[in-house]
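Figure 3 (text version): structure tokens given as input.
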């Protein structure tokens, strides 16, 4: 039975699997942080919940969900645990990887659509043309989810320019060819396992390389959706999920939290009432913009039209905004909580630290505000943006 003929899990089975995943993510987030990775059995739960087949083409046995559907799934997982949501977000890589040749995609999904991918792009390392493909050696950082991946992609630059005109490529290889160097020692998102990855003279066939952000080999609306804006969106939505969790937990806490100095409960303090209302409005506003432009862009592609540069810039802008709002809300909640949040093992500290890491990512950093502004003002957009 090939991938196209495989029987998909019933919707009720998928729903039950997602609930199992969410329960595990909530209960085991300290374990993820301590181990600096999402546990292997939880990655299997993600598979069962349909995370890794969600964006895979139907022709390969996948679900081929819309971007908004996938983003809502990642947001839900992120409410349970930010690191779990971050690792799950790389299920979007099926869109990214669709720039590979059709024959390569058929080989990748020959045993089914639930393929776990991780990657490290920067800095691109030298690759040397040899018999059988490109010999790749080097070390790459930020390999989120690499400990649970089955295939890994790394950024390369072909010695002599190669057939792609010197553009950086992603080389994809089985995880068994990659050495993981555990070194993920950070203040937040500790469970993502974003360790360094090392390849030593691994020969990657050219058919398993592609231009980062290159045109998809598939031609349905999902695979015409711009992969680089989507790469920013799947990370930003983690921040929305964390902020939702922080806000909900703070509301639950506020009714019973009193001060050792005898002050009123948090819920009875005017500044808390005001700040909770502002946080709710900010989160809902950021989320509305985020999903509105996502659905608008996808509807344009479904109608057979191309996305304008302005629409692509709005996708990036909505992502940067979502990441920043999520970080700001969790910081406000930390402040509201007073001394409660200073303990390293408290949920307030955990969520605040996770959320602060997200807008530090290059796809969501402060420079992306300026880049979006240039596009909206009709100025020339920077290379690679949006």
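Below: residues designed for each position.
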């Amino acid at each position: 039975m090939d991938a196209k003929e495989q029987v998909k899990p019933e919707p009720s089975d998928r729903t039950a699997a997602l609930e199992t995943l969410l329960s595990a993510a909530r209960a085991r987030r300290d374990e993820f942080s301590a181990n600096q990775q999402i546990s292997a059995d939880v990655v299997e739960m993600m598979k069962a919940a349909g995370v890794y087949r969600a964006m895979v083409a139907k022709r390969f046995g996948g679900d081929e969900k819309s971007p908004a559907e996938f983003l809502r799934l990642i947001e839900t997982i992120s409410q349970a645990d930010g690191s779990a949501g971050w690792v799950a977000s790389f299920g979007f890589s099926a869109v990214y990887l669709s720039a590979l040749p059709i024959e390569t995609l058929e080989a990748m999904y020959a045993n089914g659509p639930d393929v776990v991918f991780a990657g490290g792009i920067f800095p691109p390392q030298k690759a040397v043309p040899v018999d059988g493909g490109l010999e790749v050696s080097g070390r790459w950082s930020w390999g989120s989810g690499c400990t649970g991946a089955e295939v890994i992609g790394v950024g390369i630059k072909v010695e002599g320019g190669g057939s792609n005109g010197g553009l950086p490529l992603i080389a994809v290889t089985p995880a068994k060819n990659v050495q993981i160097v555990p070194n993920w020692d950070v203040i937040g998102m500790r469970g993502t396992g974003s360790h360094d990855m090392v390849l030593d003279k691994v020969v990657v066939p050219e058919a398993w390389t592609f231009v980062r952000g290159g045109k998809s080999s598939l031609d349905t609306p999902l695979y015409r959706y711009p992969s680089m804006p989507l790469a920013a969106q799947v990370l930003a939505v983690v921040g929305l999920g964390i902020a939702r969790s922080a806000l909900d937990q703070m509301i639950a806490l506020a009714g019973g939290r009193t001060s050792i100095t005898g002050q009123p409960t948090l819920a009875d303090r005017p500044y808390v009432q005001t700040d909770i209302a502002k946080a709710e409005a900010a989160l809902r506003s950021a989320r509305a913009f985020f999903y509105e432009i996502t659905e608008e862009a996808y509807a344009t592609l479904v109608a057979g039209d191309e996305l304008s540069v302005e629409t692509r810039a709005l996708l990036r802008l909505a992502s940067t905004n979502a990441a920043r709002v999520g970080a700001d809300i969790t910081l406000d909640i930390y402040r509201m909580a007073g001394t409660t949040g200073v303990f390293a093992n408290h949920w307030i500290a955990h969520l605040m630290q996770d959320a602060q890491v997200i807008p530090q990512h290059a796809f969501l950093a402060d420079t992306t505000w300026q880049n979006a502004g240039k596009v909206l003002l009709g100025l020339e957009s920077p290379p690679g943006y949006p």
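The chain has 13 helices and seven strands.
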